[in-house]
Design brief:
Length: 312
Amino acid sequence: MTVSQTAPPARLAGEDDAPPPRTRGQGWPAAGFLAPFLLLYLLFIAGPALYGLIMSFFDTSMVKPGLSGFAGFGNYTEALQSPDFWSSLWHTIWFTVLTTPPLIVLALVFALLADRVKHGRWFFRLAFFVPYILPSAVVALIWMWLYTPGLGLIETGLTKIGLTSPNWLGDPGWAMPSLALTTLWWTLGFNFVLFLAGLQEVPKELYEASSMDGAGPWQQIRSITLPMLGRTMTLVAVLQVIASLKVFDQMYIMTSGGPNFATRSVLQYVYDSGFTNFRIGYASAVSMLFFLVVLAVSAVWFALVRRGEKGV
């Protein structure tokens, strides 16, 4: 007996690769999961930002209800012509210059050293990262005690070796470097962890092959480690610049912008204008101008990332 076999129907090319057809309502579960986050984002981020933009065009005050009178671009013009605004912006930029390079370089150096430790690497992660989780008020109190004239630990140590300690937070020339040193101790651990994570992604085979070719540690760092950490370096640099530009806590707690407004940042200028002088509309305009500065830095980051992806 002969059994006839029917050949399976021929399939079109690429038929197996075609995605299954979407059914109606398939995206509703995903929308349900995203709805709480979207609601909170609109209520606490997008909504206040839009309302702040609207207030920047009005003479809004905390002592008057509503938006008050329409000011147009008057608040922006006043801010751009204000020496206090430009002074606070310069202080913010100067703080960023003082903190960004050491927070990147030192974090990279310490990460390179910790990565070569075979045992107890967790201890170095913990030691560097613990200060970062401290609240800003605690960090400020610790360093205010260290900087206290006559009683501070730093002045006591310098006196024992025959050096004269300056008035760290009371001298306009030393106040900003003192705040930068505090920030360096406080936030170094975050960049350290990012660099250490990036180093662990570098294939160990590259180091073994280079060692067989006679490459030393410095040659390995220059030819292998730094190129492989290119994207991590870009991420750390931009995140650090943005974080330094948004400085407020330690300056406000430790010096309140003094002495003689030598450490008043843009955010503290916004705070003083809005909550001390009650000029919410003007403070909103200053916030929008500062937002443009941060946005420009973000645009540079995206440009650097695209160049890195293209291998330029």
